[in-house]
Amino acid sequence: MEKVTFEQMLQAGVHFGHLKRKWNPHMAPYIFTEKKGIHIIDLHKTGVKLDEAASAMKQIAKSGKKILFVATKKQAKSIVAERVQAIGMPYVTERWSGGMLTNFATIRKAVRKMSQIDKMEQDGTLNTLSKRERLQVSRQRAKLEKNLGSISDLTRIPAAIFIVDVMKEHIALAEAKKLGIPVFAMVDTNSDPRPVDFPIPANDDAGRSIALVMDVLAQAVAEGLQERKADKESAEAAQAAAKKSKEEAAAEAPAADAGASEAPAEEAK
User: Fold this and answer.
1) What percent of the chain stands above pLDDT 90?
2) Which of 198, 200, 207, 196 is nearest to 47 (CA)?
3) Residue 190 forms part of a structural domain
4) Among 155, 3, 166, which Cα is nearest to 72's?
5) 49: domain CATH number?
């Protein structure tokens, strides 16, 4: 896993915090200084926290569990969606539906409804409806796809959640904490890092800053998935080798028994 450098973070503007008057005192340990009324984040601490988060995410991915990525703010949507799609993890970049975690069963029903509409379209049932009904169903399908399409593969509560901007995604954060789901998040100088299990002190407004953090985390998840695949292939190969060895041993056994029975017969002659 390649570590991000101080220079890379500096160039991406990861160190720029909010105005001093907007700060959250609990972010004090991560603030390096203040310049022209703006707090500057300590990038050395950012690097350490980012490495910790990446290592933890890698292990979660390696175990075969899902991490839900949440970023509904305008400048983060496309950045997060693009990188998360590449690693096959669920994400929310439109609106956070209240109860998405705490009322997961209802959300799953809505996802199943989307699948049912698709099935109706495939088997021709949709064509038997009136034009108005078809239009209503199509609109319903489009709305479900927009809000829930990116989590359609999430069949159970995620093992962890990653948030860009805990201030904006406070509902998602609260739901995760209520269920005891580990939270990874970018925390700016105006945020409270205390509810976050893996806080990454960073500028959560600039696109380049968000992209840099997402690149590191997406790479860690991809490596975890790759290692899981390699371990699975090694286990299958070992299992196949053991089976082959067992079959060869079983095939040799009758031959050995036959040789043993021939020897007494020769002595009798």
Assistant:
1) 62
2) 200
3) yes
4) 166
5) 3.40.50.10490
**Residue 123: domain span:** 102-156
Domain count, the chain: 2
Q: Are 146 and 174 members of one domain?
A: no
Q: The pTM is what? A: 0.82
Give domain status of residue 132, yes or no.
Answer: yes
Q: Do 13 and 92 sit in the same domain of this protein?
A: yes
Please state the rounded mean pLDDT for residues 151-179: 93
Side by side, the strands of the sheet bearing 183-187 are 91-92, 67-70, 160-164, 183-187, 198-201
Q: Is the domain of 174 the same as that of 90?
A: yes
Averaged pLDDT for residues 115-140 = 81
For residue 263, tell me if it sits in a domain: no
Contact 69, 90 (CB under 8 A): yes
Per-residue pLDDT reduced to its tens digit, 2-37: 789 999 999 999 999 999 999 999 999 999 999 999
Please state whether beta strands 160-164 and 31-35 pair in parallel, antiparallel, or not at all (unpaired).
unpaired
Contact of 158 with 66, CB cutoff 8 Å: yes
22 and 115 within one domain: no
CA angle, 2 then 3 then 6, to 5°:
145
pLDDT over 70 percentage in the chain: 93
Residues 210 and 131 in one domain: no
Residues 6 or more apart in contact with residue 87 via CB below 8 angstroms = 61, 218, 221, 222, 225
144: in domain: yes
For residue 189, give both structure tokens.
């100088």
Local confidence band at 265 (pLDDT 50, 70, 90 cut-offs): low
Q: 233: phi > 0 → left, psi -120 to 50 → alpha, else beta; which?
A: alpha
